[in-house]
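Course exercise 7: structure representation. Students receive a sequence record and must write out the corresponding structure in token form. The form below is the worked example handed out in class, using Benzoate 1,2-dioxygenase electron transfer component (349 residues). Read each field label carefully; the graders check that inputs and outputs are placed in the correct fields and that the protein name is recorded exactly as given.

STUDENT ID: A-19
EXERCISE PROTEIN: Benzoate 1,2-dioxygenase electron transfer component
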Amino acid sequence: MSVIRLYPSGNEVPCPDGMTVLAALEAEGWALPNNCRAGTCGECKVKVRSGSFDQGFVLDMALSKEDREQGYGAMCMAKPLSEYLEIEWGTEDAKPTLFPPREQIAYVVVERIERTPSIIELRLRPIGESLRFWPGQHMQLGAPPEHPLRNYSMANAPRPDGELTFYITREPFGQTSSWLTDSVAIGETLMVNGPYGSFIGDPAIATPVLLLAGGSGLAPIMSLTEAALRRGFAHPVTLVFSVRTPADVYPLGQLEYLKRRYPNFELQVSYTRHDHGKTCTAEPHHHGRIPEILETITPSLAGTAVFIAGSDHFVSDCARVVNSLGPGMVYTEPFTDQQGDFFSLSILG
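STUDENT ANSWER:
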């Protein structure tokens, strides 16, 4: 048995013999960035301050000769050999170290999907090196000065190919959102800045999780959900999605996959308007705004981590009710209107 020590927080994580550093951290709830889990992408590369480890087979493109000489290791393949292995990860309060933002990174639009009458999905892939980010963060998209930069949250967990997925709402007076939803076509190149924001929660959360999303606020919620479930988060995860009508529920295929793949994931939908048209397979469902019906869905939120994303009014109203049902951990991501465009403003509460 070895011990992994996180610097600078000093937190210690047990690592049984034969287990990789990544697996040991995940077993204790620490969400170290990763994708391939096979030594090919470099997403889990961190600096080892002291101790010895068996690196295993890692491709040079994931861990270069210079990286190795400077003491870096790929934690998805690294197995401790010494009693203690100290790695640089997180801050003094054990929160993840945010990746430094970069500007003017070229991405190509590889997919454009009409998700609802008012929301489209854009998928972008990098031409060169991709931007690293934490689930729940956002990027800036635009083409100044004609189309000002606006912040949009990623709707996917980090991937080896660097793809970024965005849900963008059509805004009639939104200079940038109108351009992205109505004019940008597959094959076009966009410049991306980021990542930004701290809507990432506590990586060591080991409690039930409640996710409240309204409209395109589903994006950072989906990113957090996919990442947590994929790394083996075992506690109950309940997503309550607020939409106007069944026609506004998206992305149905991905939501159904999560329900069937992960038994601890539950989807509930709340409709704020009545529509006799398109039906939704999501069960159970409710009628009314989430702040008005939340107490009937879950009378108590004590010991629950709650993530809220959507319009600023949606977030503030939900947070007020959530705090009355606590105490628990509350993380919010309101999308504030600025000159007709919605952008995300991260607040960690």
